[in-house]
């Protein structure tokens, strides 16, 4: 579904992404791992249109999407979440979800003046869909809670819920487990698996929790110093000498081998 071909992203003399090439297959849950500073989030930002690449090419289902802005990619079904959740803090959880779909009648000033009944019908439908999403994620009891009052894990579930309010084809999750307790992390993992199996979502997941990656992801791609270092099952990645060296350093690798 997504093909990244020799992508570079430079910030002055610093090469955050340095010739990355990889493929995310449709229907997969692909894991993206690597030590801090490997270029994982920068690569996400390039794919999702947050940053333009210095060079290279990104295609989605054969279409060149290199450098397209996030709102255009959103319309094509490519969505991403962030390491730190971005919620509308003073709005309710339900209202946060209702904000997601674009082209709503209430966004048009003429409709707001003369088509109020149509807007009310649309809002009732959005509220019903939001409640369905919250029930799917098992946080329907929080529908009327202000989003700013949620825990870190609940905010991550809310971000996942946003992707369900539109016809997402592929979702990029950036450290969805960061700062989340184990119980909620299991809830998030269950939701991702259900979305993948029942609704056909494709996911690419950046995560440092190897148990989480092992439960969800196949294949797993490891990056280091802006490049793709290895790809395979998690067991194959863990046994890869280059991956061990990237995480532990040459000296520690030799101690582990010994």
Automatic annotation (TrEMBL):
A single GO molecular function term of this UniProt record = ATP hydrolysis activity
Pfam families referenced in this protein's UniProt entry, alphabetically = ABC_tran, BCA_ABC_TP_C
UniProt keyword annotations, A-Z = ATP-binding, Nucleotide-binding, Transport
Q: Domain ABC transporter spans what residues?
A: 2-250
Please tell me one Gene Ontology term that the record gives under cellular component. plasma membrane
Q: What is this protein called?
A: Branched-chain amino acid transport ATP-binding protein LivG
């Amino acid at each position: 579904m997504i093909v990244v071909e020799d992508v570079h992203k430079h910030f002055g003399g610093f090469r955050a992404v340095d010739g990355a090439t990889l493929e995310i297959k449709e229907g997969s849950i692909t894991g993206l791992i690597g030590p801090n500073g490997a270029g994982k989030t920068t690569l996400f930002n390039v794919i999702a249109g947050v940053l333009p690449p210095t060079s290279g090419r990104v295609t989605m289902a054969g279409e060149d999407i290199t450098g397209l802005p996030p709102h255009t990619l959103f319309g094509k079904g490519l969505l991403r979440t962030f390491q730190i959740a971005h919620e509308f803090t003073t709005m309710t959880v339900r209202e946060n979800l209702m904000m997601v779909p674009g082209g709503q009648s209430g966004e048009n000033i003429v409709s707001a003046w003369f088509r109020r009944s149509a807007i009310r019908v649309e809002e009732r439908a959005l509220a019903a869909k939001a409640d369905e999403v919250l029930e799917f994620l098992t946080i329907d009891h929080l529908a009327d809670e202000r989003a700013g009052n949620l825990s870190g894990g609940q905010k991550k579930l809310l971000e996942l819920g946003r992707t369900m309010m539109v016809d997402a084809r592929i979702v990029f999750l950036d450290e969805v487990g960061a700062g989340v307790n184990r119980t909620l992390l299991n809830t998030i993992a269950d939701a991702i698996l259900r979305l993948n199996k029942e609704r056909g979502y494709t996911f690419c997941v950046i995560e440092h929790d190897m148990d989480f990656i092992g439960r969800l992801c196949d294949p797993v791609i490891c990056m280091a110093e802006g490049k793709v270092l290895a790809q395979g099952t998690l067991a194959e990645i863990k046994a890869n000498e280059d991956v061990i060296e990237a995480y532990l350093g040459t000296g520690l690798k030799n101690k582990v081998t010994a």
